[in-house]
Amino acid sequence: ILIASGSNIFAGSNGSVFLSTNSGTNWNSVNNGLPTNPTVACLASSGSNVFTGLNSLGGINGVYLSTNNGTSWLDINQGLTSRN
Hints:
Number of helices: 0
Shape: globular
């Protein structure tokens, strides 16, 4: 899963969210605040906000928000009836 947010590119995979700030030449894992080994189901951006939806068989589910290009992620599942 790939998205562009400004000049940054985010890639989601089984186990990590990655960030490239140089058109994909280099990638860095940006998982601070995400559960261990997340399965990234989707990525979306709105302005400077980046969202990821996690879904895995191990129960690591939910929506997370980064407002700082993946440096940290916040669990934003309050008010959802299910994390699935």
